[in-house]
Amino acid sequence: MCEVLNRWLVDARDKPIITALEYVREYLMKRIVNVLVVANKKDANNQILTPNATKLFEANKKDASKYTVLWNGRQKYQVNGLNGEQVVVDLATKECACRRWEITGMPCKHAIAALYNRSANNDEVEPPEQWVHPVYMMSTWRNTYAFSINPVNGRSMWPKSTLPFTLIPPKIVATAGRPKKNRRKGLEEKDNITKDGKLSKKGKQMQCSNCKEFGHNKRGCKNEGVGTKRCSETSGSGTQKKSKK
């Protein structure tokens, strides 16, 4: 939630403190109202999960139809899929071998397939939506945005300060370069694994493809590599054959 709020407050970061706080207050007022309007529409349709959770859960339900299930007669199910995929689902502990159910709190496609199989065996089972963690429920969503933020009068109607001195803003010192608006990311947030869709070579020792030595690449190679020797030998043999003819 903090990351989402931080992304929407980019335009207010370089503003004076009062202007920035007013921007935050007005943004929260509009967000709460928008959420309540959407929540009222979903309640009218008797929707159990939040809109985004509903999209994810419907995708899992669609994928669950592609699996076959074997029941052990108790609380565990063997779910088989394409390409030899096979996992175990335990409905008693709400766990799946793929670990998506435990990590996200939402039943994965394997768990939903097991719930469908349990219902097909005439066993009393709640709808799949009831197995989702309460954090995705509409009731939780409404309770989160149950508070409201009151409007505030403009500066012209603010009470005058009785202090004997006037606070002035600090002197602004212009620094070189364009001011940065994006926040500084922590080390744990930086993506050092991939760059432009490719795996990073950070920490990997470089090996030359020409001389097979470590510490440099082919572009900076100063040795007579295997490829160079082969080329010279090939060109020399061709010259000798021509001379014999």
Blueprint of the fold:
Elements (H helix, E strand, L loop, with lengths): L1 H7 L8 H28 L6 H14 L3 E4 L4 E5 L5 E5 L4 E2 L3 H5 L4 H12 L17 H7 L49 E2 L2 E2 L26 H19 L1
Antiparallel strand pairs: 1-2, 2-3, 3-4, 5-6
Helix pairs in contact: 3-5
Overall 3D form: flat
**What is the string of helix and strand elements?**
HHHEEEEHHHEEH
- Our Rg estimate from Cα atoms comes to 32 Å
Measured distance between first and last alpha carbons: 81 Å
- What kind of sheet is the major sheet? 4 strands, antiparallel
Number of helical segments? 7
Percent of residues in beta strands: 5-15%
Let me know the number of strands: 6
- What's the rounded overall pLDDT mean? 82
Percent of residues in helices: 25-40%
With strands numbered from the N-terminus, the spatial order across the biggest sheet is: 1-2-3-4
Regions with pLDDT < 50 over 5+ consecutive residues? 228-245
Which class of secondary structure composition applies to the elements?
A: alpha+beta
Can you describe this structure?
The chain is α+β, with helices and mostly antiparallel strands and 245 residues long. Among the domains are: 2-46; 51-137, no CATH class. It is 38% helix and 8% strand. The strands form two sheets. A four-stranded antiparallel beta sheet has the order 1-2-3-4. It has a two-stranded antiparallel sheet with strand order 5-6. α3 packs across α5. The longest helix is centred in the first third of the chain and has 28 residues, at 17-44. The model is unreliable at 228-245 (pLDDT under 50).
